[in-house]
């Protein structure tokens, strides 16, 4: 084969922002001479296409769908195809041959490896693999990835769509990502069989119509001070970690992974780096006096070494980070202790289920609302996104000092120092 001829339309290049927001049907050419275009269908589906001439014949090659295949990735794939043609080979034929041999299971391995930098944590990576191993691979694993069709994907999703809707919805997105990787890598062509809009959306009910939102059971406000006193009476590093979680309204993973390098005992601020945050954004936590004192006590513990900046503040008994279940185990033991003395325990008022560590964030949020704290300030304390992406881009303040006063008041509430005029109210436990 001889050299390549490309689409002569070389105009203004597309931008990542345009690719992210364009919705009008049409063909949008990317400048640069690679013949790359973004095709937006009337159904709303979008896909990358490269027009290229191979041995005098114009061909169209699918390169996957955004956002799974980014603009940069589509350009790189288009460039690879150009190089293949210039070397005298046919990328379409190479793809066709590859599709005969690559299974969905192998494609999944490649896709997971390609996405490794995007996973927020080992737990996120394990969740990806677990859902695929449990539901997708038994059905799709041995199929050639280029032959996986919508009917195949439905065989995976339909049995769990109404019973495990959130899991099924996430699984669909993961299958879509694998098939998009396979398209971009040249192992399949055409529409993505796991695409939702204009495809599976026509055959499955919307997730929000069948899924019942299940909230983490939260501690009732009236139980807070008694629960906190019971917690403080418990020994062990996990109990102290749970106490610190309650004082800061942080997530379990943020507390368990906390190192001395993140703590500034001079200013009383704990700074959680972006790579440990769910939103991938640095988060500063003002430390109330009780939270500060708790850290000081951890610093002088027999096995503590605050000079070792990489050492976890709340180390596991055998070293390293506390397990994901350690804080939950403390709450379960506290619940059982209440039941053993004839009390109902620490129950969520809405669901009647025993409260869990993550539910303390909900308790904190309810308290801020009852006390009249500004919504944005409360959401910032929980490290939630506040406002639109544009608003967040222009906001420079995280209300640190205002949040410091709020967290001090929260620590007083936990400790039972809740004033109503000159009266201090204390909660009373309910018996079964």
Automatic annotation (TrEMBL):
The keyword DNA damage does not apply. Residues 214-407 form the Tyr recombinase domain. CDD domains: INT_P4_C (cd00801). It comes from the Bacteria. InterPro entries: CB, DNA_brk_join_enz, Integrase-like_cat_sf, Integrase_catalytic, Integrase_DNA-bd_sf, Integrase_DNA_bind_dom, Integrase_recombinase_N, Phage_int_M. Keywords: DNA integration, DNA recombination, DNA-binding. Residues 102-183 form the Core-binding (CB) domain. PANTHER family: PROPHAGE INTEGRASE, PROPHAGE INTEGRASE INTS-RELATED. This is Putative P4-family integrase.
